[in-house]
Write a structure and sequence with these properties.
The chain has about 190 residues and is an alpha+beta fold. It has two helices and eight strands; from the N terminus they run αβαβββββββ. It has two domains: about 80 residues, no CATH class; about 70 residues, no CATH class. Helix content is about 20%, strand content about 40%.
Length: about 190
């Protein structure tokens, strides 16, 4: 009967340690969330033109036979030889236009056009997700095992505490009442 009480106590202790370690590791894993980074890139094409027309020829000339009012000759001559500059601008979602006109001697001397044609916007979304899982700095694990050699058999209760690259394992033999202490150093660790 005494033997069964020992085994029951060992089983309850193993279950309690197992539940404690599961709760501890679950809480430490919740803190280790992945880092996610999202990158979005947009591109728009623009075509730029600049044109200049020197001395354009009028396509239609209408001459007047009679002069309808009294005129100031000096004013007309000054106006005739004056250089006049005109500017026109237009913009919408597809086109941006800037036009400069030069008028001299009652004729159009120069037209300069500067315009941008916006092609239909092409959006390229590049999403890069970088997920990085961090290896926990410490962990606690529990377990049980059997050890058998030629003379004895024993039931072991094991606990393992790991921090960085160091592992300390503590075991207790329930039947033979012996204690086992091990130290391990991790030489290689995979990131997968």
């Amino acid at each position: 009967m005494n033997k069964y009480i020992k085994y029951s106590f060992a089983g309850i202790a193993i279950i309690a340690l197992l539940l404690f370690s599961i709760a501890f590791l679950y809480n430490s894993c919740k803190k280790n969330k992945p880092d996610t980074q999202t990158i979005i890139t947009h591109h728009t094409d623009t075509i730029h033109y600049t044109d200049t027309f020197n001395h354009p020829v009028p396509y239609k000339v209408i001459e007047i036979d009679t002069i309808p009012a009294i005129i100031d000759t000096q004013k007309i001559i000054k106006d005739y030889f004056a250089k006049k500059y005109y500017k026109y601008e237009y913009a919408d979602t597809n086109l941006e236009l800037k036009a400069n006109f030069q008028v001299k001697e009652n004729s159009l001397q120069k037209i300069k056009l500067d315009y941008n044609v916006f092609r239909k916007t092409t959006t390229i979304n590049t999403i890069s997700t970088v997920t990085e899982f961090k290896i926990p700095e410490y962990s606690l694990s529990v377990g049980a095992g059997f050890i058998t050699n030629f003379t004895t058999t024993d039931l072991l209760i094991l606990t393992n505490f790991s921090f960085k690259r160091n592992n300390i394992e503590l075991g207790y033999g329930v039947l033979n009442k012996n204690v086992q202490l091990n130290y391990k150093f991790t030489v290689f660790r995979s990131k997968k």
